[in-house]
Amino acid sequence: MECPIPVTTTGPAVPGTAYEPVIGLEVHAQLATRSKMFCGCSRDYWDAAPNSHVCPVCLGMPGVLPVINSRAVELTVLTGLAMGCTIPPRAKFDRKNYPYPDLMKGYQISQYDEPLCVGGALEVDVDGEPRTVHLERIHLEEDTARLLHRDDENGARSLLDVNRAGVPLMEIVTRPDMHSAQQAVAFLRALRQLLRYIGASDADMEKGSFRCDANVSLRPRGERALGTKVEVKNMNSFRAVGRAIESEIRRQRAALEAGERIVQETRGYLEASGETAPQRSKEEAHDYRYFPEPDLPPLLLDEGRVGKLGAVLAELPGARRRRFEQEYGLTPDEARTLTESRERADDYERTVHLASGLSGIGDRDDYPRTVAHWFTGDVARLLNTLGSDAELRDTQLTPGHVAELAGLVAEGTITATTAKQVLDIAFESGELPQSIVQSHGLAQVRDEGEIDRLAREVIQAQPKAVADYLGGKESAIGFLVGQLMRQARGRADPQNAARVLRRHLDG
Predict the structure, then answer these.
(1) Which of 47, 191, 265, 290 is the most exposed place for a label (fewest CB within 10 A)?
(2) What are the two backbone dihedrals, phi and then psi, of residue 418, each rounded to the nearest 5 degrees?
(3) pTM for this prediction
């Protein structure tokens, strides 16, 4: 669907003119359904053998009839409700005609003048400053087949995999509200987070279930009329989106400053060079010869049905982030990290609930922040070894493990240093922290006589550090504490160790 940005032809530049970029996005998100948009074939094509999830409907055979996937409609409406869209009482499907080899029927079933969702907005954070990006519409359509290009000893050729054809595809079209690549990327990140939160899409750019085209134009700063827009495609990561938009802004600015006119066209982003290159002249809506899909009836969405969908809408990321700050006393950065995904936020809250019932930690006012420190610190460290999107469910850890570990530290059973060791073992084995402490002999050394013995051994073994301390070098005590902790295998309390060392040294 064309991003409905009014177009004027940007004329020759006036020397010294400052230009403002204007950016609108068209985002395609595959919906998290079990079957395709208009047939019963599985929509899970990623790891499937080529052309194994197909039927006469997918293949565009003559005489077949499409059937609307009601779950795809519900997920699109749910997305619209989450973004404050108006849900019209009537929507319809249209045929969008264009002759590409990956379009099996020679047309795509999409929506034109009566989409499922109209208007709406999404608030995004850009360097700590909130910005609102308004939407034009959200509509539902079917995805195309995949063209796989090969160039090897058998020559250059293109292969067609029809498994993706017909996968439900939601298109989210923004207004030209953004003025930098940074704002565009912030919007995409916020949108991906929202879609995952409400379960509408896995929004995985690497697998192509979350794709973006950018409409970029420049205009003299202070003017309201828009310049000639250029559509940029072939961006498969947030980094690529940012680089492509920045490159296109530079290209258009240089052209205008050289007195050239911007041509309305579609350009592709080239990852190797970081630049955009022409693909084809830009189509307008009339080029697609839209007309109502004769094989599908209009969709009638009454208020009751829409209301039921809204009632199951999960707490959205922004609201949950603010609640975490107010209810649990988290910092904005902590709350933002813990609400990055719905699953992570759920795991954190389950851990807080479990910790509240444990002695030693549950009676402390700051236990939600203690749990947050574990999640944003050592738990995050371990999850990152599995990938940026890893969650607890991908590991042997559970909220119960984290709560029990935090409790053991709070009640003094183990030290914070030992706790990291326990967590690493639990991450690999799934064994509960209390059991690990017992089986590995990791309980904190509480025997004052043992600490005293270790302190005397460290003092005797480190004469230089002792001399430095006695000579007024306060930092030397930290080195001595470290040596004692090493002797105790991390099982001594650092503050107690420092106290005993000072008693010997100062005496």
Answers:
(1) 47
(2) -65, -35
(3) 0.83
Alpha helices in 200-341 (DSSP H): 238-257, 303-311, 317-328, 332-338
41-93 pLDDT, tens digit per residue, is 999 998 899 999 999 999 999 999 999 999 999 999 999 999 999 999 999 99
Gap between the Cα atoms of 70 and 89, Å rounded:
16
CA 240 to chain centre: 15
Q: Is 303 left (phi over 0), alpha (psi -120 to 50) or beta?
A: alpha
> pLDDT tens digits for 153-201?
888 898 999 999 999 999 999 999 999 999 999 999 999 999 999 999 9
The burial of 361, by beta-carbon neighbours within 10 Å (0-12 exposed, 13-18 middle, 19 or more buried), is given as: buried
pLDDT at position 312 is 86
Tell me which amino acid residue 261 is: R
Q: How far, in Å, are 38, 88, 94, 355 from residue 296 at the CA level?
A: 10, 18, 9, 54
Place of tokens 């947030």: 238
Cα angle 189, 187, 111; round to 5: 105
Q: Which residue has the tokens 């649990």?
A: 328
